[in-house]
Design a protein that fits this description.
Strand content: under 5%
Number of helices: 32
Radius of gyration: 44 Å
Shape: elongated
Length: about 475
């Protein structure tokens, strides 16, 4: 059926039969086909030209073929079907020779079948090329012209942009503008404002769906000179005019757009601003509000801390509390234990993970109530109950808290004590062990001295030997 129709169409186009006779043959073919079983869809139907697609191409095909051929082609598309490949073959077989000659006259001859077909269906006709040349677009490659045709870069479009002040645009830039629907009407809407935007900025505006009405409302709010980047960021992050109005209402003044964008990104709304203000922080900058929100300094937290602490807290202090996870529960627990740390001590306690249990253990180990700084010092130097127990099990039962700190600072660990004692120094004192570590006296050092014949090496002699490099003398 399809092959027969294509044959009739070809005969009409070549003048072998009249249009009337061809129409009659097509009707007879339709009558014959209608008596048969309807054709079923198969994978061979892939790439069929739709009616809508054909009509989109018809206005560009019309100038280059005979009217009878175009009508016959329309009928086969509407009544039966034709593939894109078949459509291409038929058009190329029936293209008006004058069209090809006119293309050659404007500099495009010996085109490949693919390029010629693309020129036809995308409207890259001789007159279009001629008008482009008059506007300075000369010697464009076939692929560039086809791209301009595909994206409907018309002469009218180019002229309208020129009237708006956008001339000397490259073919690629024109195509990019059409891809993103940057129309003359879209640009004209922005020309109402005392603002000047580039083509690239208009393209970005379109990408982020920025409309002129948004800019108009922004100007009405008192933002007289918004830059392109701010406008893009506002739309990108969903900053609406009502949102901006609510922030202005909270501050009773215009806030810079850059800060409003930050506030929106961080989820700061009017209720947050008012809530913070109700706790005494009425004139915080937008940047400070962003910090509050990031670190969780919300109205509830502020109220809890203000109630617990007997002094007025600053924004910096509240931020520091949150950064170091100083919670109301922690503060109340410390106060309940009878401790009265300053805010700075509270922060240090949180930094070094001091808990109530640390105070209890210290008191149990030393039979005295420790100071806050002493417990912090123990935490800094990792002096744990387990460490103290090991040291005491080695015979050092009367060490002061300061002795234990020095042990930890200089690395007098249980293993080190055992090594030194194994060499015959069972009565070595805590201070001597600290001096050993300070001067780098190790088990290996003592053994090497003994190998060289040194005898009666008291702790003091070992320290002197290390200081004066006696071992180096032997070696």
């Amino acid at each position: 059926m399809k092959e027969a129709r294509l044959s009739i169409l070809k005969d009409i186009a070549e003048g072998k039969i009249s249009a009337e006779k061809g129409q009659k043959l097509l009707e007879e073919l339709d009558d014959e086909f209608s008596e048969r079983e309807p054709r079923k869809f198969t994978s061979r139907n892939f790439g069929i030209v739709s009616k809508q697609n054909f009509e989109q191409l018809a206005s560009n095909i019309e100038p280059v073929v005979k009217p009878e051929f175009l009508q016959a082609l329309r009928e086969i598309v509407y009544e039966q079907e034709i593939t894109h490949e078949e459509l291409k073959r038929l058009i190329l077989q029936n293209v008006d020779p004058a069209f090809i000659k006119d293309l050659a006259r404007v500099g495009y001859k010996n085109l490949t079948d693919d390029d010629l077909y693309s020129f036809i269906i995308f409207g890259v006709h001789p007159e279009y090329i001629h008008q482009l040349k008059k506007r300075g677009f000369k010697d464009l490659p076939e692929s560039q012209l086809i791209k301009m045709g595909i994206h409907r870069v018309s002469i009218e479009y180019i002229d309208d942009l020129d009237r708006l002040g956008y001339s000397d645009l490259s073919p690629n830039k024109l195509v990019e503008m059409r891809i993103h629907n940057v129309t003359p009407d879209y640009i004209s809407a922005f020309k109402e404002f005392p603002l000047d935007f580039s083509v690239n900025q208009f393209i970005r505006f379109r990408k982020f769906r920025l409309e002129a009405d948004f800019v108009k409302q922004l100007l009405n709010l008192g933002y007289s000179n918004p830059n392109a980047n701010h406008l893009i960021e506002l739309t990108k992050h969903g900053v609406t005019i009502p949102y901006i109005q609510s922030i202005i209402q909270s501050y009773n003044e215009n806030i810079p757009l850059g800060q409003i964008i930050k506030m929106k990104i961080q989820g700061i709304n009017n209720s947050f601003v008012k809530g913070v203000a109700s706790q005494g922080f009425k004139h915080l900058s937008a940047n400070r509000l962003v910090e509050f929100n990031i670190h969780g300094v919300n109205p509830e937290f502020i109220a809890q801390m203000q109630e617990i602490f007997p002094v007025e807290l600053s924004a910096n202090q509240l931020l520091e509390m949150r950064i170091h996870n100083l919670t109301p529960d922690y503060v109340e627990e410390i106060f309940a234990f009878g401790l009265k740390p300053s805010l700075r001590e509270f922060i240090e306690m949180k930094i070094h993970r001091v808990k109530i249990q640390d105070f209890i253990q210290y008191q149990k180990l030393f039979n005295e109530k420790p100071t806050i700084q002493k417990v912090i010092e123990y935490k800094i130097h990792n002096i744990t109950p387990e460490f103290i127990e090991e040291i005491r099990n080695l015979g050092f039962t009367n060490l002061s808290p300061q002795n234990l700190v020095e042990f930890s600072i200089h690395g007098v660990r249980p293993n080190f004590i055992k090594e030194i004692r194994s060499l015959g120094y069972s009565e070595i004192t805590a201070q001597e062990l600290i001096e050993f570590r300070i001067h780098g006296i190790t088990k290996e050092f003592i053994e090497r001295l003994k190998e060289k014949g040194a005898k009666d090496l008291s702790p003091r002699k070992l320290v002197n030997a290390k200081i004066h490099g006696v071992l180096d003398f032997f070696e």
